[in-house]
Amino acid sequence: MNGKIHLKNMLFYGYHGDLAEENKLGQRFIVDLTLSLDIAEVARTDALEATVDYVAVHEVCRKLVEEERVRMIETLAARIAERLLRDFPRLITVDVTVKKPSVPMKGVLDYVAVETSRTR
User: Which end of the chain is more exposed for a tag (fewer CB within 10 A), N or C?
Assistant: First the structure.
């Protein structure tokens, strides 16, 4: 039985960007995840060990966004997806969206986002 776990609008502060100001001052990043996995065992046993601990998933994302630095949010999204597949063997597919709301450009917009998907 396939299922999905969603983590939406996780807010982190990181130092990612191509411009010197972005690397010096930092900014907010918003991460959305959709994690696909087989939920038959957890539905039967009601045990955390039979699923993916979303608290641990959140911590992996936090560390990647807040403690590492990359220039492009495409790189950040790919690293999140790859690390989650590596660290959580129950995952089948990871969909990641990284939103950058404070884009240093002329014009008004809510955010720029990059979306990627990785499958085991």
Answer: N
For 41-85, the pLDDT digits (tens) are 999 999 999 999 999 999 999 999 999 999 999 999 999 999 999
Coil, helix or strand for 20?
A: helix
Exactly one of 4, 63, 99, 100 is catalytic; name it: 100
Find the angle CA(107)-CA(98)-CA(20) to the nearest 5 degrees. 60
Three-state DSSP at 58 gives: helix
* pTM metric for this prediction: 0.94
Cα–Cα distance for residue pair 32/98, rounded to 1 Å: 7
100 flagged as catalytic: yes
| The one-letter amino acid at 63 | K
User: Distance between the two ends of the chain, CA-based, in angstroms?
Assistant: 17
* Pairing of the two strands 2-14 and 91-100: unpaired
Phi, psi (deg, nearest 5) at residue 56: -70, -35
Residue 94 sits at φ, ψ, to 5 deg, of -125, 120
Domain formed by 2-119, architecture: 2-Layer Sandwich (3.30)
